[in-house]
Design a protein that fits this description.
Elements lengths: L16 H10 L6 H8 L1 H5 L3 H23 L7 H10 L4 H5 L5 H16 L7 H14 L7 H10 L4 H23 L14 H8 L2 H20 L3 H7 L1
Helix pairs in contact: 4-7, 7-8, 8-10, 9-10, 9-13, 12-13
Length: 239
C-alpha cells in the first residue's frame, strides 16, 4: 500500500502535466489523488503520530458510513447498527481500516452525496455542484465507473428529465475519459501489452475477463429492472 508516502504529504506529488501524463498511462487516471494525499497526511504532518493517523482515518470512515446509512434510508429501510456490522465484518472493507491510503472510501463519499442531492431536488441545490461532483466521481479511482449504471437507471425512472441528466451526462463524459485511459494504458490498471495507441491494445483490454464481467452484470441488472419493475435502487446497487 501507499501509506508511507503520506508522511511526505502533498509534496510527494507535483500536480502538473507530468503527473497527469503518468496517471493517464497507468490506465487509472485518478487525478484527485494528490488532494487525498494532502487530506490523509494531515495527522502525520501536524502531529507526526501514526496512531493519530489511523484514528483520523477511522473518523473519516465513520462519517462517510453515517452519511451513507442516512442517505440509503431515503431509498430502502435499513438498520444502522446492522449496516455498520455488515460493513466492518466484510473482509474487503477491513483494508480501509488497515490502509488509509485506499481511495475507494472517497468514491462512497461522493456517491452518497449525489444520492442525497438526487432526493433533495426540491430544495433547489445548485446544478453546478451536482455537475461537478458527477464529473469528478470517476476521477477518484477507476472503480467508480460502474456506478454510472445507477444514474442511468435513475434517468430511465425519471424519463430522462433535466434533473436526472445533470447526474448522468457529466459522469458519462468523465467515464469516457477514464475509459480511454484504461483501454489505451499499459500500466498497472490495464493489461500490460505495449505502450502507445494501438487497436490491438484497445481490443484486448475491452475483451478482458474483467470488462466482459462488468458488461454482463450491467446488462443483467438493466434487464431485471425492466422485466420485473422492482425497486430500481436495489437492482442498481447489486452492481
Amino acid at each position: 500500500m501507499d501509506d508511507l508516502i503520506f508522511k511526505f504529504g502533498s509534496k510527494r506529488f507535483n500536480y502538473n502535466a507530468d503527473f497527469l501524463k503518468l496517471e493517464y498511462y497507468s490506465g487509472g487516471f485518478k487525478i484527485l489523488y494528490p488532494f487525498q494525499i494532502w487530506l490523509q497526511g494531515i495527522p502525520l504532518r501536524e502531529f507526526e503520530n501514526e496512531l493519530i493517523y489511523y484514528i483520523f482515518n477511522l473518523i473519516i470512515l465513520f462519517l462517510i458510513l453515517y452519511l451513507g446509512s442516512a442517505v440509503l434510508n431515503k431509498y430502502i429501510s435499513i438498520d444502522k447498527n446492522i449496516f455498520y456490522l455488515v460493513i466492518f465484518t466484510f473482509p474487503y472493507f477491513t483494508d480501509f481500516v488497515l490502509h488509509p491510503s485506499l481511495q475507494e472510501k472517497y468514491i462512497f463519499l461522493v456517491f452518497f452525496l449525489l444520492l442525497y442531492l438526487f432526493q433533495e431536488n426540491d430544495k433547489n441545490y445548485s446544478k453546478y455542484l451536482i455537475i461537478t461532483l458527477s464529473f469528478l466521481l470517476p476521477f477518484v479511482k477507476i472503480q467508480a465507473v460502474p456506478l454510472l449504471i445507477v444514474f442511468f437507471i435513475f434517468c430511465l425512472k425519471n424519463n430522462f428529465d433535466t434533473n436526472s441528466l445533470y447526474y448522468f451526462f457529466p459522469m458519462l463524459f468523465a467515464c469516457f475519459i477514464v475509459f480511454v485511459a484504461f483501454l489505451n494504458g499499459s500500466g498497472y490498471h490495464s493489461n500490460k501489452i505495449k505502450q502507445g495507441f494501438s487497436i490491438e491494445n484497445y481490443i484486448s483490454n475491452f475483451f478482458s475477463t474483467q470488462s466482459i464481467f462488468i458488461l454482463f452484470v450491467t446488462f443483467l441488472i438493466t434487464f431485471l429492472n425492466f422485466k420485473y419493475k422492482k425497486n430500481d435502487f436495489l437492482y442498481s446497487i447489486l452492481l
